[in-house]
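I am going through a labmate's work and have reached the protein record below. What it holds is a sequence and that sequence's fold in token form. Please read both lines and tell me whether the tokens look consistent with the sequence. Do not assume that whoever made the record got everything right. Thanks in advance; the entry in question is below.
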Amino acid sequence: VAAQNCRKRKLNAILNLEEDVCNLQTQKESLKKEHSQHSRSISRMKQKLNNLYRDIFSRLRDDEGRPVNPCQYVIHCSSEGSVFIIPKHSVKSEQKQDNEKE
């Protein structure tokens, strides 16, 4: 009887583990789909941001009416909602200062 009970517990444990594996596989597939959807969403947002960036720079002009070169400037948005066009070299020096502070 003890051996029979032991076998029964062992079979129940195996069945529970098989059920857990099945549930985890289902969860894994669900997470893969969710990850894929998020990746696509991020790609779309990056594309929209790129388009917006190009559109903004296509409309910008310097003091002499020449187009602003997007290779030399970056768009900076402050936490208050202000938007600035900053030369890239000053952004790099600010990043170096921030890294040194850390």
